[in-house]
Amino acid sequence: MNRRTFTKKALQTAALAGVASSIPGLSVAGAKSFVRLGGPVFDKYKSPDEWVAALKNEGYRAAYCPVQPGAPADEIRAYEQAAKKADIVISEVGAWSNPISTDPKMAQEAFKKCVDSLALAEAIGANCCVNISGSKNPVQWAGPHKDNITQGTFDEIVEVTRKVLNEVKPTRTYFALEPMPWTYPDSADSYLRLIKAINHKRFGVHMDPMNLVVSPRTFYGNGELIKECFKKLGPHIRSCHGKDIILKEDAYTPQLFECQPGLGSLDYGVFLSELSKLPNIPLMLEHLRTQEEYRQAATYVRSIGEKEGIAV
What we know:
The structure is a single chain. The chain is α/β, with parallel strands linked by helices. It has a single domain, classed as Divalent-metal-dependent TIM barrel enzymes (TIM Barrel). 43% of the residues lie in helices and 14% in strands. The protein contains 10 helices and 12 strands. It has helices at residues 3-21, 48-57, 73-85, 104-124, 151-168, 188-198, 216-220, 222-233, 268-275, 291-308, and strands at residues 33-34, 37-38, 62-64, 89-94, 128-131, 175-177, 203-207, 237-242, 244-247, 256-259, 283-285, 310-311. Strands 2-11-8-7-6-5-4-3 form an 8-stranded parallel β-sheet. The protein has a two-stranded parallel sheet with strand order 1-12. Strands 9-10 form a two-stranded antiparallel ribbon. β3, α3 and β4 (89-94) form a beta-alpha-beta unit. The longest helix has 21 residues, at 104-124. The radius of gyration is 20 Å and the shape is globular.
């Protein structure tokens, strides 16, 4: 082992120990690497310091954006500085809306929300602003529709995404689309098609592998699905969501249900192993109802990390 190798490894170990020392119950014994875990905070906060305290109380090293679009510039800067000081990565600003809606008013409002949310992500230094691409469903803004997976809709998604990016012109954050079962991007390959078609260096990837589990084949082979996503999209990934999934067994047609991490069959060993290879890309828990459910999910994810030698 030469001096350069030793120094690099020593620095990695020291950095990991520094992260672990501030996370309740997190150990670096045998850990090869680490993953930043985050989720919503239920404690009410009125200042950046209270926000950081609430995150630390849950052992989180990543966070959803703590302010909304339109917040005063000095407030945004204060939260950004508090996050940096506490070594917290602001993972994402959600722009949840339907910019390809068949309702022109809804589509325009959604476009504005995407622009405002991306501008906030840029201002606060978030890893990304994330939305779904949208839907042609006239009732469910994120629902299935026969026109969602068509070349015409693909082209419209490309056009709208370019317009959002060109409106904001981000230099340090990314605009990303969460994959969905029934609209683009609906696979690693369709995400690669979007990246090529949009052709913008600030278009990134938001990875939620649970959303790509759409059949018994992908359910039972979800570990390989996750590996494929990271192999093809890894350099572009800016944030990840952590959920879980169940395949109902007492039915004669496939029925897949989202559930709390640890109660389903998503291969978190593979998920954490692949994610740990990327620098400072958070895993964000979502869609749970109570603080206790989030704590149970975090405990489960950390237990899998411990088995894999990954501090979470």
